[in-house]
Amino acid sequence: MEVLLKKEVKHLGKSGDVVKVKDGYWRNYLSPQGLAVPATDKNLKILQHEKIIEEKKNDKIKEAAMEIAEKLKKISCTIVRHAGEEDKLFGSVTAMDISESIENEGFKIDKKNILLDEPIKKLGIYHIPVKVHQEITVEVNIWVVKEKEE
């Protein structure tokens, strides 16, 4: 029996694939779980229509992410920390600190989207990659400066 997958099924295929399965597998597993429908012309047309709508939605989201990325390129954030000899920080600057600094500039970026390999432990200027969308990553300038001593 040929079925049209509505969702990804491990070892079988991804959403939109037409695959051949045994009747019992479709009747007892794929159909009750809502993972597949029979591969009829009607169902294929419905799936194509849903894919077009999904693509348009994703294009709008990607376009908005591009605008945010362009704005993020133009900002630079300053993080003030205590530092000792040879410009080593007492502590470190983490993705959370960078996220808060970017938020102070007017952009809400989750700390998981800041691609920091390891915490920053020295003063300086850093170009940190920030993931704005699945396919869009932008570098943000981060200045780590020494706190003024009184």
From TrEMBL:
It comes from the Bacteria. Coiled coil: none annotated. One of its GO terms (cellular component) is ribonucleoprotein complex. Residues 13-40 form the Ribosomal protein L9 domain. One of its GO terms (biological process) is translation. SUPFAM superfamilies: L9 N-domain-like, Ribosomal protein L9 C-domain. One of its GO terms (molecular function) is rRNA binding. Keywords: Ribonucleoprotein, Ribosomal protein, RNA-binding, rRNA-binding. Pfam families: Ribosomal_L9_C, Ribosomal_L9_N. Belongs to the bacterial ribosomal protein bL9 family. Binds to the 23S rRNA. This is Large ribosomal subunit protein bL9. It comes from Candidatus Schekmanbacteria bacterium RIFCSPLOWO2_12_FULL_38_15. The lineage of its organism: Bacteria, Candidatus Schekmaniibacteriota.
